[in-house]
Structures are given as C-alpha cells and as structure tokens.
TrEMBL record:
Free-text function comment from the UniProt entry: General (non sugar-specific) component of the phosphoenolpyruvate-dependent sugar phosphotransferase system (sugar PTS). This major carbohydrate active-transport system catalyzes the phosphorylation of incoming sugar substrates concomitantly with their translocation across the cell membrane. Enzyme I transfers the phosphoryl group from phosphoenolpyruvate (PEP) to the phosphoryl carrier protein (HPr).
Matching NCBIfam families: PTS_I_fam
PEP-utilising enzyme C-terminal domain segment(s): 258-551
Transmembrane segments: none
Signal peptide: none
Keywords: Cytoplasm, Kinase, Magnesium, Metal-binding, Phosphotransferase system, Pyruvate, Sugar transport, Transferase, Transport
Kinase among keywords: yes
InterPro entries: PEP-util_enz_mobile_dom, PEP-utilizing_PTS_enzyme, PEP_util_AS, PEP_util_C, PEP_util_CS, Phosphohistidine_dom_sf, PTS_EI, PTS_EI-like
Designated name of the protein: Phosphoenolpyruvate-protein phosphotransferase
PANTHER family given in the database record: PHOSPHOENOLPYRUVATE-PROTEIN PHOSPHOTRANSFERASE (PTHR46244)
Family to which this protein belongs: Belongs to the PEP-utilizing enzyme family.
Broad EC category: transferase
Length: 582
C-alpha cells in the first residue's frame, strides 16, 4: 500500500531506491559490499569467529564453580545452541553470499530480522530470548573485531539503489557513509542544521530528516522515493507517481549537468564585484570535491571529524599533521581555513566519555563544547595547534576558533598559539609565523560584542547554524522545535548584518560558513548585506554561483534594506520577494 511521510528537507534532489533499514546497534559496525572473489574468505571469517565464541563459551562452562546456580550452565548452553542455529548462521551466510554484505553487516541485519519476529511473539518468556540472541551476536562481533584487529575498513563495490532509513544517525556514523554510494537518507529525528543533515548535504544526495516514525513504518526493501527538496518520502509509490518522479529526477540531472558549465567562469556579480566561494570540508580527501566544484579555498575544515571514530585515544600530533598537510597540498596553494576541534553537543567524542561528566552534562549544547573544551584540555589543544602550524609550512593555512564569546577565551587561545609556536621553534620545526587567526561568530554575545574580536583577530567567520540556535534558543538537532529554527528571524538577520557591516568598517575580512551560505535562496540577501566571501559544501557551490552571476549589488540595496527595516513577518516576506526579483 502506498503512503507518504513528511519531514524536513535537508539535502536537495530526488532519490528512488530500496529502503535499507539500519538499527541503532547495527551502526556500530562497518557496512560495505565485498567483491565476489571475497565471498568465501568472508564466510571463513564468520566461521572462525563462530568457532572462537564456541571456545569462549566452553571455557566459561568449564570455569563454572561447583556451587554456581544451575541456571548459569543452562544459560551458557542456550547461547551455544543459538550460536549453531541455522536461523542465525545459515541466514547470515546467505546474506554474505547473495547480497555480498560484509560479515558484520550480514550478522546485524539478520539480528534485526530475528528481532522483528521475536517482537511479534505473544509468549513473554520466548520474546525475551531476543536478548540472548543479541548477546550472542555481540560476542561474535567482538570476536570478529579481535580477529581482524579492527573492524574492516574500506568499501568495495557500490550499493547504489539503497536508501538508508534509520531512527537517527550520529555524525560520526554518518562519516562511514562518505565512502559509500547510498542514494538517499531518511531519519526519524534531526533538524535542518543538525550535523547529520550537514554531512548528508556534503554527500550531495537527497535526504529528509525528522520524518517521524519512518523507521517503524518503512520495511526493509520497500521501494521508496525521497524528495529532498520538500522533505517528502513516498513509500511503495503508484506507477504513475514513480514515472513522474523518474522524470523529475532526469530533469534535475540535466540541470546539474548545465551547472557544470559554470565551473571555470570567475565568480562575480553583474556589476563586476568579485565574490569568493570557498568550501566546507570534513576530511582531507573532501578537498578534491572542493577543487572539482571550483572553490577558491577551504573556508571551514571541521577537524573534529578526524577525532571521531577513534575509540580509545585522540589522534597523535603526527597523524593530525599528515591530515592537515594532505588537505593543504590537495588545495595546491589555495587558502585552507582549519577550525580547531569543535566537539560536544551533537558531536561527542568516544574518548570524552571518561570521568569528565560530559555524558551527564545537563545541556551539552550550552556546556563544555568547542573552544571551551579545548581550553580545558590544554595539552590536547597544543597538540592540535602544533599540527596545524606545521601544516602551514606547506601552503596557505589559517586557524579558525569555534564558539568564542569572552575576551579571556580569545586571549588564552592566542597565548596557547604563541606557546605552540615556541615549542616548534625549540624543536626547530618549520611553520608560517604569520599564520592568521580568526574567530567563528556563532554566539550572539560575540556578534554584539564584536569590537572585542575585531581588535584581537585577523578575520571572522559567521557560523549561522549555531548563531540561529543560540539566538532563538532552538536546539538545531531537535526536530520537535525545527519549525521554529528560522534563519530569517529579524534578530538573526540583524546580528549577521551588524557583523558584516562592522567588520567591513574595521577592515577585518569576514565570511559566512554556516548553512545559510550554501542556500541559493539566501544568496542575494547575503550579497545585499555586503557579504563577499561564502563557504559551503562543494555540492552547493555551483547553484550559489549561478545566483551570484545573476545578481547586481546596486539593485539589491533597497530591498535588502527593507528586509532589515521590518520586524513584521509579512513585511519581511514581501521585501524578500523583492530581493529575489531584484
Ligand atoms: C555553524 O555553526 O554555522 C558552523 C559552521 O559550525 P558547525 O555547523 O560545525 O557548528
Ligand atoms: Mg558552529
């Protein structure tokens, strides 16, 4: 039966494919397709892990104290039986053979299927046996991780007809999808600028988040359409609907091909003002996509993604340096703005869950996040600063600091940068001594107290995602308040316009690197406010460029002034219409 679900559009375009449901537990393992030639060795890997768990269970049984409760032995026996059960073993092997899933994926997929059967069972005792199966699967997964040293990485082949459907996907898990070619994403939770949505957008594939109950209503392998422009998900579409969307999909592909022609033209307005379009990246390799789209630099390198998926430790200085250098070298002389780690809120680190109380922070978005965390971990921060400074010897590097609000935070940060330079001098290691340091303007206090920043820093970058979150007190990742997350709220627009105007007056370069910079519907408004440097995901760059090429700054002046002069929604909307038509 066909039905439609509505959510929040976060990444444009249309995807048509089969639903691939991901259970939260399944996200802890890698998902990739193996080559046909690897099937037998993958099955062998499974068998070896199965054997290892058998040995573990035998050892447990042998070690049972004579006076141990009899249930203990029975419990181990049940686990041994499950470990041999064809429903688990044979079906998992079938998934490896027929679908070419890696063994971890096959195993968690089969666990999901079995769990659904168990959920339907009336008998409570039997229903609870589901937990035993989960425990056995977990043991096998651990054995697999131990056997191979780590869960296998790398992706083989493509699964290009699948659309991921999940309750939620953490940003760190989203990174796993960077190397895979899923066609779309649908999640129950999330907001437009949640980091999950941002990564989806960076992949340039259609996505809808906040599609409530999607993961419960959509079944594995259902045919679905994701309309990423409108946040609509159509499940089991009627043939005529499918035909219409296939047509729209091919039209969009055509538009995209046309946009490619803009790649090599200079970015300037009709009146000849040069506009810089830079890229936001999460991993060094993303620099290729940035260059491909014609970016004139990296305006935001979100380094925290390098720190995620490091289960037990932070990356060493050398490892960080290599990653930064790689991005710098790939950009081949173009500027690379490296932001110091911005963890916390919806981007926790595995290694943050130590004794620092982070997990129990009452409100992580207002807690020990970004620069606050870095300043509380000076050794870690110095390590990152040294790594960035070292990369500055290989190209044009700028340092960007997130979430600053207080004068003492700026001063402490600048002191630590001086200290990192001293340490490199002592060790005789090269770096650019004149590396520029800038601040993200993403807390309203920073925008309002701008002179503090203008006096101390070389450049500014407005992070509209957080600026909106903190100005409107709307958690950007919370879909229950997503309808109130409004980039066009007069308070937000005034803070942006004020920051642009004051920075310009002080001669301090300023850019916008939040998601507003990549929204072509807002390009003219930002241009009219005086913005000349945008930074966005490469997948959005050409559409924004098209808007720039069609704009004339002089004609934008009056309607943009009207937008800022009004506080009434209808008047703002009317003025915005005039901006679009100017
Ligand atoms: C922002 O807040 O606008 C920004 C660019 O940073 P992030 O999205 O990583 O918080
Ligand atoms: Mg931010």
């Amino acid at each position: 039966m066909s039905f439609t679900l509505h959510g929040i559009p976060v990444s444009r375009g249309i995807a048509i494919g089969r639903a691939y449901l991901i259970a939260p537990a399944a996200l802890d393992v890698d998902h990739y397709l193996i080559e046909p030639a690897q099937i037998e060795s993958e099955v062998e890997r499974f068998r070896a892990a199965q054997q290892r768990v058998h040995e573990e269970l035998d050892a447990l049984r042998a070690d049972l104290a004579a006076d141990a409760p009899s249930e203990m032995g029975a419990f181990i026996n049940v686990h041994s039986m499950i470990l041999n059960d064809a429903m688990l073993v044979q079906e998992t092997i079938d998934l490896i053979r027929t679908r070419r899933y890696n063994v971890e994926w096959a195993l968690t997929e089969q666990l999901e299927r079995l769990s659904r059967h168990f959920d339907d069972i009336e008998d409570e005792y039997l229903r609870e046996r589901k937990a035993d199966i989960e425990q056995v699967v977990e043991r096998v997964l651990k054995a697999l991780a131990g056997a191979s040293g780590a869960l296998a990485d790398g992706v083989h082949g493509a699964c290009d007809e699948m659309i991921v459907v999940a309750h939620d996907i953490a940003p760190a898990d989203m990174m796993q999808f960077k190397t895979q070619t899923f066609q779309g994403f649908v999640t129950d939770l999330g907001g437009r600028t949640s980091h999950t949505a941002i990564v989806a957008r960076s992949l340039g594939i259609p996505a809808a988040v906040g599609v409530q109950h999607a993961s419960a209503l959509i079944r594995q392998d259902d045919l679905i359409i994701v309309d990423g422009d409108h946040g609509i998900v159509i499940v089991d579409p009627a043939p005529i609907v499918l035909e219409e969307y296939s047509y729209r999909q091919s039209e969009k592909a055509l538009e995209q091909r046309k946009l490619q022609r803009l790649k090599f033209s200079p970015t300037q307005t009709l009146c000849g003002t040069r506009i810089e379009l830079c890229a936001n990246i999460e991993l060094p390799e993303d620099a290729r996509a940035a260059l491909d789209a014609g970016a004139t630099g990296v305006g935001l390198f979100r380094t925290e993604f390098l720190f995620m998926n490091h289960k037990d430790r932070m990356p060493e200085e050398e490892e960080q340096f290599e990653a930064y250098r790689r991005a710098v070298e790939l950009m081949n002389g173009l500027p690379v703005t490296i932001r110091t780690i911005d963890v916390g809120a919806d981007k926790p680190l595995d290694s943050m869950s130590g004794g620092d109380g982070y997990e129990t922070a009452p409100n992580p978005a207002l807690g020990l996040r970004a620069i606050r965390w870095s300043l509380s971990e000076p050794q870690m921060f110095l390590t990152q600063l040294r790594a960035i400074l070292r990369a500055s010897a290989f190209g044009s590097v700028k340092i960007l600091v997130p979430m600053l609000a207080h004068a003492q935070e700026i001063d402490q940060t600048l002191d630590l940068i001086r200290e990192a330079k001293r340490q490199l001098d002592d060790a005789g290691i090269a770096y650019n001594p004149n590396v520029q340091v800038g601040a993200m303007i993403e807390i309203p206090a920073a925008a309002i107290a701008l002179p503090l920043f203008l006096k101390r820093l070389d450049f500014l970058s407005i992070g509209t995602n957080d600026l909106i979150q903190y100005t409107l007190a709307i958690d950007r990742a919370d879909n229950s308040v997503a309808h109130l997350y409004d980039p066009l709220h007069p308070a937000v627009l005034h803070l942006i316009a004020f920051t642009l105007r004051e920075a310009k007056r002080a001669g301090v370069p300023v850019s916008v690197c939040g998601e507003m910079a990549g929204d072509p519907a807002l390009t003219r408004l930002l241009l009219g406010m005086g913005l000349t440097e945008f930074s966005m995901h490469p997948s959005q760059l050409l559409e924004v460029k098209q808007e720039v090429l069609r704009s004339h700054l002089k004609t934008l002046e009056k309607p943009v002034a009207d937008v800022l002069a009004s506080f009434e929604p209808e008047e703002v909307q009317a003025a915005l219409k005039r901006v679009a038509q100017a």
